[in-house]
Specification:
The structure holds two protein chains of two kinds. Chain A has ten helices and 13 strands. In chain A, strand 2 and strand 3 form a beta hairpin. Chain A folds into four domains: 210 residues, no CATH class; 68 residues; 84 residues, Nuclear Transport Factor 2, Chain: A, CATH 3.10.450; 70 residues, Nuclear Transport Factor 2, Chain: A. Chain A is α+β, with helices and mostly antiparallel strands. By secondary structure, chain B is mainly α. Chain B has a domain of 84 residues: Cell wall hydrolase SleB, domain 1 (Arc Repressor Mutant, subunit A, Orthogonal Bundle). Chain B has five helices and three strands; from the N terminus they run H-H-H-H-H-E-E-E. In chain B, strands 1-3-2 form a three-stranded antiparallel sheet, with helices on one face. In chain B, a hairpin with a 2-residue loop joins strand 2 and strand 3. In chain B, helix 2 packs across helix 5. In chain B, 55% of the residues are buried. The model of chain B has no long low-confidence stretch (mean pLDDT 90). The chains are: A alpha+beta, B mainly alpha.
């Protein structure tokens, strides 16, 4: 009896052991497979980076000696593409973002800068001596970068480091040491850029973007008490149940005092008031809206009325987007019938009762001017009309100031029209007649968007 | 002129916010979305929303799979993502944030602090 039981038990234990071992092998091989797959991905990304950086180096060298603007434009377009791809693959490597941030910045600026220079070439403008000096500097950096990458590539090929050692967070002393060696070889990449100060040019990643002057941020500095008073008045004193100071943000792009308030319905409202001039930087509330009874026209009107009341006159609605019972409407400042798109304010309107749920003024604070100089118009509208594609059936036309990627402005004729049922906006520079931009208008049930 | 994020950008960002900040106040959720967008605009980071979100080691919610956590029915993360894409930036231009209770990285403490929202310290 006992013997039978024992045998039976042993059998079960044996069976269990076999199952466990089988599962163990299965998991082990699966894990090996996954590990291999991610190793392969990392290797692919790495070798792509090596190749693209090599090409960046070559095209930078070529850009220095291109003598015609046509060929120059071609070289710069290639450079733009290669640097952009190098940058994309670089961010796929399993390395903490801050370890490679300067390398990333270098590639982004090479890409962006070459794009901006290729535009010059398209208009048959020669590169200036400064441009050539910049390209030369960039080329020197790219040579160092390519060399370091080749060294790393050797290390990888000879097995001196492995990607999983970079990603493993093991606490074993040995693993950590290996980890440090590998990390060090990658920080060599960054060392190439210790003295790289960055570039100033006409592009989205240019250095001056962050430090640009905030034209709409006018007025004297205020104290926190005054800011609180502004916040209270903005919401309406009778509406506030409670308001608390969240402190002063010295390092914010627009230095501000922040407040959090609760209204009579216990809904939370956040407000940020600029130190300079006491402007509302933003206001936001997240009330749930369950019904939509207000039309878009009515919402546009309510938003405009609100802006008027709060000291932003002459604002015109441009685009809107609805989501979960709330519509966000863009308003642009209008001066002498010219639409100033950079002076942008966004207003959130609740579609159940028309309450204003949010305000965002950073575009306005960065760019707004009471009056802009409109005397630069050199091209009559008839001539601008000639410049557009004859297939465009023009519906409306007017003047507008549009922002560029690099935070400057261009005074343009704005033509709105249709081609084969699709709506477009075409912008013709009012100073030199160049076609500056073409936007497609997309009408969706939730709003009008431009692309 | 405005380049609005497409639907898949909003959804991806909502999932990132859900993974990183689903227990946070609404303002903190918009703030996480704003940091993602500030990175897209910064030369030191990738230039697309998915590039920023999936950059190696950038977000813990991506590393540990929290980004795939299902979004609760009454969640505010979609609204937060849309507000961020529409331009609301409660962080005042930040490109980093961390939870001081769990942060192990010493480097992150050296960044200039802008403000604290909920559990997260936002910095530049």
């Amino acid at each position: 009896m006992n013997k039978i039981k024992k045998g039976y038990l042993l059998g079960i234990i044996g069976l269990l052991l076999i199952v466990i071992i089988a599962l163990g092998i299965l998991f082990y091989s699966k894990q090996k497979e996954y590990k291999q797959a991610s190793q392969n991905n990392y290797n692919m990304a790495f070798y792509e980076v090596v190749d693209y950086v090599q090409n960046v180096e070559t095209y930078l060298a070529k850009s220095l000696i291109s003598s015609t603007s046509e060929h120059g434009a071609e070289t710069l377009t290639n450079l733009w593409r290669e640097a952009n791809l190098a940058q994309s693959y670089l961010s796929m490597l399993p390395i903490e973002s801050q370890e490679l941030s300067n390398t990333e910045k270098f590639l982004n600026q090479v890409s962006d800068y070459s794009y901006s220079l290729s535009r010059k070439n398209i208009y048959h403008e020669d590169l200036s001596q400064e441009d050539l000096n910049n390209l030369k500097d960039l080329h020197n950096y790219s040579v160092d970068l390519a060399n370091t990458l080749n060294q790393l590539s050797d290390d990888l090929n000879s097995g001196r480091f492995k990607w999983d050692e970079l990603t493993d967070k093991g606490t074993v002393a040995f693993a950590q040491q290996v980890d440090n060696i590998s990390k060090e070889s990658f920080s060599n990449l960054e060392e190439n850029f210790h003295e790289y100060a960055g570039l100033i040019y006409d592009g989205a990643f240019s250095e001056h973007i962050t430090s640009s002057e905030k034209k709409g941020l006018t007025g004297d500095d205020i104290e926190e008490n005054k800011a609180r008073q502004i916040a209270e008045e903005f919401i309406g004193k009778d509406q506030i149940k409670e308001i608390s100071n969240l402190g002063y943000s010295e390092n914010a792009t627009i230095q501000s005092y922040d407040f959090s308030a609760t209204n009579q319905n216990d809904e939370n409202i956040n407000l940020s008031i600029s130190k300079k001039g006491g402007h509302i930087v933003y206001m936001n509330s997240n009330r749930e809206v369950n019904t939509e009874t207000i039309s878009q026209d009515e919402a546009n009107r309510l938003g405009k009325e609100f802006l008027n009341q709060k000291g932003y006159p002459n604002m015109k609605e441009t685009y809107y987007l609805k989501q979960e019972g709330v519509v966000t409407i863009n308003y642009a400042y209008v001066q002498d019938d010219v639409v100033m798109y950079p002076d942008l304010i966004k207003v959130k309107v609740a579609l159940d009762n028309g309450e204003i749920l949010g305000l965002e003024t950073s575009g306005y604070l960065n760019n707004h001017m009471e009056t802009r100089d409109l005397s630069k118009i050199k091209i009559p509208i008839e001539q601008a009309r000639q410049a557009i594609n004859p297939d465009l059936e023009i519906g409306s036309e007017g003047l507008a100031v549009i922002p560029t990627e690099w935070k400057t402005e261009i005074l343009c004729y704005e033509f709105k029209g249709k081609v084969e049922g699709r709506e477009f906006l075409v912008y013709i520079n009012a100073e030199n007649g160049r076609e500056e931009d073409v936007l497609m208008i997309v009408n969706t049930p939730n709003g009008t968007l431009t692309m | 002129m405005q380049q609005l994020g497409n639907t898949s950008d909003v959804q991806l960002m909502a999932r990132a916010i859900n993974g990183e900040a689903r227990g946070e106040p609404y303002e903190g959720q918009v703030a996480v979305g704003a940091v993602i967008l500030n990175r897209v605009k910064d030369s030191k980071f990738p230039n697309t929303i998915s590039g920023v979100i999936y950059q190696s080691g950038a977000f813990t919610a991506v590393a540990d799979g929290q980004i795939n956590h299902p979004i609760a029915e009454n969640s505010t993360v979609y609204k937060a993502a849309q507000d961020a894409i529409n331009g609301w930036d409660p962080t005042g231009g930040c490109i980093y944030y961390f939870n001081p209770a769990t942060a192990t990285n010493k480097w992150i403490w050296s960044r200039p602090h802008v403000k604290t929202i909920g559990k997260h310290r936002f910095c530049k």
